[in-house]
Structures are given as structure tokens and as C-alpha cells.
Design goal:
CATH topology of one domain: Arc Repressor Mutant, subunit A
Structural class: mainly alpha
Number of helices: 3
Number of strands: 2
Largest sheet: 2 strands, antiparallel
Shape: globular
Helix content: 25-40%
Order of helices and strands: EEHHH
Radius of gyration: 12 Å
Distance between the termini: 28 Å
Mean pLDDT: 78
Strand content: 5-15%
CATH superfamily of one domain: BFD-like [2Fe-2S]-binding domain
Oligomer: single chain
CATH class of one domain: Mainly Alpha
Length: 93
């Protein structure tokens, strides 16, 4: 799956996903380790579906439906890639 061409500029990958400082810099990085959901999947869903909340990302990708530890990281992706300027909301289960 290719990332949409409308994504903002990001920092180039430094070689290993664990050390990449920028959101959106490593498409194969696991955002949700429980369900093996990658950064590419999360960003693509946010951009193509117009997602604005953590709960919407959970429903569209399953990321964050396991242990919930990645909610803060999902919110960071939303703050960069969501089309709305409103803050990302972490919805209850």
C-alpha cells in the first residue's frame, strides 16, 4: 500500500524504526504492536478516510484495540495527518 501523495514532508528514516524521531518517517514501524498495525496503515487510513479521533482510527485499522498503549502515539499521527485542526480525542473503549 502506497502512502497518499498529499502527506506532509517528513524526516527521512535513520535506518531503524525504533530510532526514527519523526511521525511518518518509517512506513513499516509498528504503531500497534498487539495487532501488528503499521505506521503506513494508520496514516493511510487517517488521510484517505478523513479520520479525526483515536476511536475512528481504532475502528478503521484495529490499532489500539488491544492493550491501548498506543493511543498516545495514534493521537500524534492524528495531530500531523488529520485534515481538521481540532485536537485528537482519545475515546473510551
Amino acid at each position: 500500500m502506497d502512502l497518499p501523495s498529499t502527506l506532509p514532508e517528513t524526516t527521512a528514516c535513520t535506518g531503524t524504526c525504533a530510532t526514527c524521531p519523526a511521525v511518518g518517517s518509517c512506513p513499516t514501524r509498528l504503531v500497534c504492536r498487539c495487532l501488528q498495525v503499521t505506521e503506513e496503515t494508520v496514516i493511510s487510513a487517517i488521510v484517505s478516510l478523513g479520520l479525526r479521533t483515536v476511536n475512528q482510527v481504532r475502528q478503521a485499522t484495529a490499532a489500539g484495540t488491544g492493550c491501548n498503549c498506543c493511543h498516545r502515539e495514534i493521537a500524534a499521527y492524528l495531530s500531523v495527518y488529520a485534515s481538521s485542526s481540532s485536537p485528537a480525542i482519545c475515546s473510551a473503549k
